[in-house]
Every structure is written in structure tokens, then in C-alpha cells.
Design brief:
Length: 333
Amino acid sequence: MPNQIVADYANLTPDFMLDAIESIGIYPTSGLMALNSYENRVYQFTADDELRYVVKFYRPARWTTEQIIEEHQFSIELAQAEIPVIPPLVLDGQTLHQYNGFLFALFECRGGRQFEVDNLDHLEWVGRFMGRIHKVGQAKKFTHRLTLNSDNYLVKPQQFLLQYAEVPDYLRQAFDTALNMLVELTQQQLSDIGTVAQQRLFGDCHPGNILWTDDGPHFVDLDDSVNGPAIQDLWMMLSGDRNAQMMQLEVLLEGYGEFCEFDTNELKLIEPLRAMRMVNYMYWLAKRWDDPAFPHNFPWFNTPQYWEQQVLAIKEQIAQLQEPPLTLPSFNY
């Protein structure tokens, strides 16, 4: 399959999407119900076989065909290991399909309720599955997908934001100074920690990407899977003050350790990774602002109040980076 040609979401009309779905032999009998996705365009529908499906149209030019196929192959490996992810359906031997310039994939539709991050039993359960996900992920590295490093997720966003014209003039100096200090301190800490093992990761494993059923969790949306350190898939489960996070981390790693070893040196990466995510999130919103879906769903972005809050948030994260990292004295993983 060749790499996708230039396409535009403006051309992604309902008739176009239905034609695309029918081109792979699936015939919708319902309308297309938009699901909560901003980066891609994702819809749920029922077909003439009375099954419910989810179709994902990938954002044009974000990933190459090879990168998407690697994501698909990883999710299929996980499903074959009986890990509750939702892999793309294989139709005529392919998981990724192309229709007039758009790349898309079809998935079984599964529901679930919100994952309760403050439920320690649920957290330990998620930890066990994350240990199993990483056991599969360690088998090899991605060849085409990105690596979670400061060049891709910190410096490139920093350079973009320093030139971003929507930062109000009266905040420009304060924002730039705070951002540069955060990036410098984060890079210094990443350098001090040194080399840690890299593996295939879920990548964006925040609570919103975990759905809960009576049979336990299932994990959705591996769109941001990357090579990186194991702690990237764990730290976003932590919330609250330091004591609360230490307790959650112990529970999470107790489940994780049943299936996969964890290098406790990676705990030092939590705050640098949080800083990296903070900068990259601003960059993501700014970079996507020309997409009409973003002003509609993120109306608070690009307001003076938003940038004022970001200056304060960056300063708070700088202070957090200067605190001792989380430690787990009671467990050896």
C-alpha cells in the first residue's frame, strides 16, 4: 500500500465515509455517530450483519502507512496474548485500508464505563495487565514509530511555541523564560538519569484510554504507541498529593511485578516525563488550531487566561522537578 496522498478532513463527508466503508465490504445500516476523538475522526455504526463497528479515519499526513501498520501489529500481538485491547479487524488480509487518499481501519465496537483511578483494586488490576503489555512490548522495538525522547517531545515543541504568535505580547517574555527554564531543567535531569531500557509502549495510557466492564479493563487507542521507558505507561495513573501517588504507585507496581520486572531507577523519570507531556500538549493544541474541531472543543485555548495559567503551571512544574523523586522503600521489583 503506498503512503497516503494529501487529504483534507473537509472532504470527509458522511457520503464519502459510507462509500469508504462499503469499499471494504461492510455495509452500514445506521448513521455514523461521532465518538470523542480530536486527532483522528472516529465513528460508531451498525452494519447489515447486525454488528456494531467503529471506523477510524487517520489524520492525513500524521503517520506513515508503515507507522500505522506497526501500531496495528502491536495491538494484534497483545490481543493474541489475551490482553484486552481492541485490535483492528483484518479484512482481505489487511488492517489498514485506503479510500481516495484517506487511511482508515475498522474495529469491533466495545463499550465500558470510566476507569476509577481512586479504586486501588482496579489500579492493581491495571498494573497486572500493564505488566503483561510490557512483557509483549519487550520482544522487539518499533522500527518506524517515534521514540519518546526530548528531541521529539520537548525541544521540537519548545521551538514551535517560542515562535507561536498567539501568546499575548504582555506574557511573551515571562512565557519564554519559564518555558526555557523548564526545558533546560528537564533535559538536565534526563541526562543525569542516563540510559534506561526502551521498549514498545502503549504511549498514551491515561485513564481515559481505559474502559471498565464487569470482566475488568480493556485498553483502547494505541494511536500514540512509541518506543520508550516502561514508566511512561504507568505515571499517568497517579493523582493527588505525594503520599497518595506513592500509595497508588506501590499498588500499581505490585500488580505489574507479577508479570514484568520494573527498574526502580525509572521513578526518577516521572516528573521529567510530566514536564515533557505538559510542553507537548501546548504544542499539540497550537499546531492543530487550524482544525475547526479544536476551537470548537477547546474554546479556552489561546485566551489570555490560558497563557497566564500556563506560565504559572510551568513554574509549578519547575518546582516539582526540584523535589526528590518518588521512591518505594517497601518493595523491590
